[in-house]
Specification:
Oligomer: heterodimer
InterPro entries (chain B): AH/BAR_dom_sf (IPR027267), PX_dom (IPR001683), PX_dom_sf (IPR036871), PX_SNX4 (IPR034902), SNX4 (IPR034783), SNX4_BAR (IPR037430)
Strand order of the largest sheet of chain A: 1-2
Number of domains of chain B: 2
Number of helices of chain A: 7
CATH architecture of the largest domain in chain B: Up-down Bundle
Strand order of the largest sheet of chain B: 1-2-3
Helix content of chain A: 55-70%
Number of strands of chain B: 5
Order of helices and strands of chain B: HHHHEEHEHHHHHEEHHHHH
Shape of chain A: elongated
Keywords (chain B): Protein transport, Transport
CATH topology of the largest domain in chain B: Substrate Binding Domain Of Dnak, Chain:A, Domain 2
Strand content of chain A: under 5%
Structural class of chain A: mainly alpha
Distance between the termini of chain A: 94 Å
Organism (chain B): Etheostoma spectabile (orangethroat darter)
Strand content of chain B: 5-15%
Number of helices of chain B: 15
Protein name (chain B): PX domain-containing protein
GO molecular function (chain B): phosphatidylinositol-3-phosphate binding
CATH superfamily of the largest domain in chain B: Arfaptin homology (AH) domain/BAR domain
Radius of gyration of chain B: 30 Å
Distance between the termini of chain B: 62 Å
Helix content of chain B: 55-70%
CATH class of the largest domain in chain B: Mainly Alpha
Largest sheet of chain B: 3 strands, antiparallel
Largest sheet of chain A: 2 strands, antiparallel
Chain lengths: 367, 444
C-alpha cells in the first residue's frame, strides 16, 4: 500500500461531507442518527446520487471504524465515544446524553472525511450511501476474517524504537496524564459549583421571606432575591455547558491518544517483523548466498510506508489537537464570561431601581 | 492634641451645653428637630488605627489598638475652608464605656447601641479595619440622634483626650446601672454575651421572666424585633455558607494554573499561551480573598440588627417591675385585712398556723398592722411611680422605635446597594480574568 496523494474532499472542489442531522427521538430504540450527504455529482465520482440520507446505529459506526483500522492500518483512525455505558449511571435516552453522543459521532465522521486518505476509503462510501448496511456487514464479516489473518504479526519483539517515535510515545503518555488531571479538576469544579448553587438558592429564599415583614424595604429585598435567582439560573447554564461540551471533548481526546498509541505499537510490530526477517535472511545469505527474498523487501516497504504515514498523521493530529483545544478552552472562557455578564446585568438593574427610590426620597424630604 | 479643641469644634450653640445628661430631662429633647443634631454641626470620623503598648491595670505590658477620632466644624467645611481637623486617640474600651454610659442614662432609647463586640484577633489588620468602621458608624449614629447628640459626655469624648474617664465615672451612672438591671443573654449561641462593664455589683436577671399584662404597642414592637432578628440571623448564616462554597469554587480553579503550566512544558506552539493562561487562572483563584473580605463589611452591617431585640428587653423589665410592685402591694393589703378583720380570703401558712396554734399577742398584732400600713402607703406610691414610669417608657420607646425604623430602612437600603455594588465588582473582576485567559488561549 502506498501513500495516496492527499486529496481532501474540500481541496478537490467538492463539498465536504455535510453535518449529521438530528437523531431520532430518544424514545426510539436503538439510537440512530441520520447521515445527510449532499454533493455535486459531477465532481465526486464514487457517489452515484447527488444526495443520500441514511440511518445509522452506533454499531454501524463501530463497524466503519473496524473496517478502517483493518484496511488502513498505518493510519490513525479517530476514536468513537465509549461503546458501553453503564445502565443506571447515565440515562441512555436522556436528551443530554443523546446530544453529547451525537456530537462525538459527528466529529468522528468529520475527521475521517477531512483525512486525505481515509476519506476515499470504500468502506466510508458504503457507510455513507448504503440503504441497508447489514447486508454489507455480513459480507464484510467474511472478508474481515481473511484480512485479519494477514495482519497477525507473530509477536515479534522490537529492539529499539527510533527516537522520533519514542518522543511521540512520551508525549502521548504525558499528554494523557494532563488530560486526566484536567478532567478531574473540571469535575471538581462542577461539584463545588453545584454545592454553591444549592446554598445560593437558599440564600435567595431568605431575602424573599423577609419581604413580608417590611414595607419600605419590600422592593429592595424582592430585587435582591430576584438577582440571586438570576445568578442561580446563569450558574446552572454554566454547569450544563461544562458537562455537556467540555468534559466529553476531553474524554474523547483520551481515546484519541489511545488510538494513536495503538498505531505506534502496530508500527513497532511491523518494524520488528521486518528486522526479524532481515536478520534471518542475512543469516541464510551468509550460509548459501541466496538473494534477498521478496518478502523482506516487501516488509521494508511496509515499514517505510508506515513510518511516513504515521509521521504525516502525527503532524495532522497535532495540528488538529491544537485547533480543538484552542476552541475548547476559549469556549470555556466564553461560557464563564457569559455567566458573569448575565449576573452583572441583573445587579446593575437593581442598583438603578434602588437608587431611583433614594433620590425620590431625598427630593420628597427637601420639598 | 485636642486640648483646645473643644472651643473650636463643638458648636457655639450654648443651648446644647446646658442640656442635662440625665435622662429625665431628655423627654423635652425628643421634640428637638433634626437640625440641631450634632452630626449636622460637626464632621466626625474615625480616621485611623494604631498599635500602642503600655502597662495595664495590673502593671503588665500589653499591646492594644487606638483609634483616631477627627472632628471638624461643619460650617467651615460647607464654606469651603478646609481647616485641619481636631483629633484625639481613644481605645476600644473607652468606646465601650461611652456606650454603656449612654445605655444607662437613656434607658428608653433602643437603637443606637446595637453593636457587636467582634471577637477576633485584635492585631489582624482586616479585623481592625472592620472595627474602625463599626466604631465610626456608632459615633455617627449617636451624633445623629436628636437626644443623644446633645449629651455632654459625648461631646467630651469627642473633644477632650485626657480626664474623660474620670468625668464619666463622676456621673455616677454605674450606681444607676445597679438599679437598672442588665440582662445577660446567651440565646444566640454564636454571639458573644452582652455583659456590662466588669462590675460585680450589677445584678443580672436571666432572660426568662414573664410579663403579665404587656402594653399592646409594646407587644407589636417586640414581635417586630423578634422577626427582624430572626430574618437577620438567617440571612447571616446563609450568606456565610454561600461565601464558603464560593471560596471553594474559586480556589479549585487554581489547579488549572498548575496543570496548564505542566502541560505547556510538552507543547511547542501551544506552550506560551497555556503558560500565561495558567497564570490568569492562579490570579482568578486568588481574587476571591479580597472579594469575601469586602463582603464581611456587609455582614457587619446586618449583625447590628441582631442586637436590636435585646435592647427592647429593657422595657420589658420596667413592666415587670411594675407588675411585681403591684403584686407586692396586693399581698400586703391582704395581710393587713387579715390582721385587722380576721377574715382570711386566701390560704396562707401564717393564717393556718394562727388558727392551729392561736393568734399572737395584741401588742404584736398592732405593731404589725402599723408596719403594714406604712408599707402599704409606700407600696402605693411605688406602684403609682412605676405605672407612670412604665407608661412613659413605652411612649418614648414607641417614638424612638418609629425613628429607628426609618433609620433602619435607610441604612438597610444603602447596605443592599453596597452589596449590589460588590456583586457587580466581583462580576467585572471575573470577566476581566477570564478575558485575559481567553486571549492567552487564542494565542495557543
Amino acid at each position: 500500500m502506498s501513500v495516496g496523494t492527499p486529496r481532501g474532499l474540500a481541496s478537490s472542489g467538492q463539498k465536504p461531507i455535510a453535518e449529521i442531522l438530528h437523531p431520532l427521538s430518544a424514545a426510539e430504540e436503538p439510537l440512530s442518527v441520520t447521515v445527510n450527504l449532499g454533493g455535486d455529482k459531477t465532481t465526486r465520482v464514487e457517489f452515484d446520487l447527488p444526495e443520500y440520507c441514511v440511518r445509522r446505529r452506533y454499531q454501524d459506526f463501530d463497524w466503519l471504524r473496524i473496517k478502517l483500522e483493518d484496511s488502513q492500518p498505518t493510519h490513525l483512525i479517530p476514536p468513537l465515544p465509549e461503546k458501553f455505558v453503564m445502565k443506571g449511571v447515565v440515562d441512555r435516552f436522556s436528551e443530554e446524553f443523546v446530544e453529547t453522543r451525537m456530537k462525538a459521532l459527528d466529529k468522528f465522521l468529520k475527521r475521517i472525511a477531512d483525512h486525505p486518505v481515509l476519506s476515499f476509503n470504500p468502506h466510508l462510501n458504503a457507510f455513507l450511501t448504503a440503504k441497508d448496511l447489514n447486508k454489507r456487514q455480513v459480507l464484510a464479516l467474511l472478508t474481515k476474517v481473511g484480512e485479519s489473518v494477514k495482519h497477525v504479526a507473530g509477536g515479534y519483539k522490537l529492539r529499539a524504537r527510533p527516537a522520533e517515535f519514542c518522543a511521540m510515545g512520551e508525549y502521548l503518555d504525558t499528554f494523557t496524564q494532563k488530560l486526566g488531571t484536567i478532567d478531574r479538576i473540571a469535575q471538581r469544579i462542577l461539584k463545588e459549583q453545584s454545592e454553591y448553587l444549592t446554598e445560593l438558592r437558599e440564600y435567595g429564599t431568605v431575602y424573599s421571606s423577609w419581604v413580608g415583614l417590611e414595607e419600605e424595604l419590600r422592593r429592595p429585598l424582592e430585587g435582591v432575591a430576584g438577582c440571586v435567582t438570576t445568578c442561580c439560573a446563569a450558574l446552572e447554564d454554566l454547569g450544563e455547558n461544562m458537562s455537556q461540551d467540555f468534559l466529553p471533548v476531553l474524554r474523547e481526546y483520551v481515546l484519541y491518544v489511545e488510538s494513536m498509541k495503538n498505531v505506534l505499537r502496530k508500527r513497532d510490530q511491523s518494524q520488528a517483523e521486518y528486522e526479524a526477517r532481515l536478520e534471518a535472511a542475512i543469516l541464510r545469505k551468509q550460509e548459501d548466498r541466496t538473494p534477498m527474498p521478496v518478502e523482506v523487501e516487501k516488509c521494508q516497504d511496509k515499514v517505510e510506508c508506515f513510518n511516513a504515514d504515521l509521521k504525516a498523521d502525527w503532524e495532522r493530529w497535532q495540528s488538529n489537537k491544537r485547533q480543538d483545544f484552542k476552541q475548547l478552552l476559549t469556549g470555556m472562557a466564553d461560557k464563564n464570561i457569559n455567566h458573569y455578564e448575565k449576573c452583572q446585568v441583573a445587579w446593575e438593574s437593581l442598583i438603578t431601581l434602588l437608587q431611583d427610590k433614594q433620590t425620590e426620597d431625598k427630593t420628597s424630604e427637601t420639598n | 492634641m485636642a486640648e483646645d479643641g473643644r472651643d473650636e469644634s463643638v458648636a457655639t450653640d450654648d443651648e446644647s451645653d446646658n442640656t442635662a445628661a440625665d435622662g429625665s430631662n431628655s423627654l423635652n429633647n425628643t421634640m428637638v428637630e433634626e437640625g440641631s443634631t450634632l452630626v449636622r454641626r460637626m464632621e466626625i470620623c474615625v480616621a485611623e488605627a494604631e498599635k500602642r503598648s503600655g502597662k495595664n491595670a495590673v502593671n503588665m505590658q500589653e499591646t492594644f489598638t487606638v483609634y483616631l477620632i477627627e472632628t471638624r466644624p461643619m460650617d467651615a467645611v460647607a464654606e469651603g475652608r478646609n481647616p485641619a481637623p481636631d483629633s484625639l486617640w481613644r481605645r476600644y474600651s473607652e468606646f465601650e464605656l461611652l456606650r454603656n454610659y449612654l445605655l444607662v442614662t437613656y434607658p428608653y432609647i433602643v437603637a443606637e447601641f446595637v453593636w457587636h463586640k467582634l471577637s477576633a484577633d485584635n492585631m489582624d489588620p482586616d479585623f481592625v479595619e472592620r472595627r474602625r468602621i463599626g466604631l465610626e458608624n456608632f459615633l455617627l449614629r449617636v451624633a445623629s440622634h436628636p437626644v443623644l447628640s446633645n449629651d455632654k459626655i459625648l461631646h467630651h469624648f469627642l473633644t477632650e483626650e485626657h480626664g474623660w474617664k474620670e468625668v464619666v465615672y463622676e456621673t455616677g451612672f454605674q450606681a444607676k446601672a445597679m438599679l437598672t438591671h442588665i440582662l445577660v443573654f446567651t440565646k444566640l449561641d454564636q454571639l458573644p454575651m452582652l455583659l456590662f462593664q466588669a462590675d460585680s455589683r450589677i445584678r443580672a436577671l436571666s432572660a426568662t421572666f414573664r410579663v403579665r399584662n404587656p402594653d399592646k404597642r409594646f407587644m407589636e414592637m417586640k414581635h417586630y424585633s423578634d422577626e427582624l432578628q430572626s430574618h437577620t440571623s438567617q440571612l447571616l448564616r446563609a450568606r456565610a455558607r454561600v461565601a464558603d462554597r464560593l471560596y471553594g469554587v474559586y480556589k479549585v480553579h487554581g489547579n488549572y494554573g498548575r496543570v496548564f503550566s505542566e502541560w505547556s512544558a510538552i507543547e511547542k506552539e501551544m506552550g506560551d499561551g497555556l503558560q500565561s493562561a495558567g497564570h490568569h487562572m492562579d490570579a482568578y483563584a486568588a481574587s476571591i480573598d479580597d472579594i469575601l473580605e469586602e463582603e464581611e463589611h456587609y455582614a457587619d452591617q446586618l449583625k447590628e440588627y441582631l442586637f436590636y431585640a435585646e435592647a427592647l428587653r429593657k422595657h420589658e423589665l420596667t413592666q415587670f417591675e411594675f407588675e411585681m410592685a403591684s403584686q407586692d402591694l396586693i399581698s400586703k393589703k391582704q395581710q393587713h385585712e387579715e390582721l385587722t378583720t380576721g377574715i382570711v380570703r386566701t390560704f396562707s401558712f401564717k393564717g393556718m398556723t394562727n388558727k392551729l396554734f392561736g393568734q399572737e399577742a395584741p401588742v404584736q398584732r398592732e405593731a404589725r398592722i402599723k408596719l403594714l400600713e406604712e408599707l402599704i402607703a409606700e407600696g402605693e406610691d411605688s406602684v403609682k411611680e412605676k405605672r407612670v414610669e412604665c407608661k412613659e417608657h413605652v411612649e418614648r420607646a414607641w417614638v424612638d422605635m418609629q425613628r429607628f425604623k426609618e433609620q433602619k430602612d435607610k441604612d438597610l437600603r444603602e447596605a443592599l446597594i453596597n452589596y449590589a455594588v460588590m456583586q457587580i465588582s466581583m462580576c467585572k473582576k471575573g470577566i476581566q480574568m477570564w478575558s485575559n485567559a481567553k486571549e492567552c488561549f487564542l494565542k495557543m
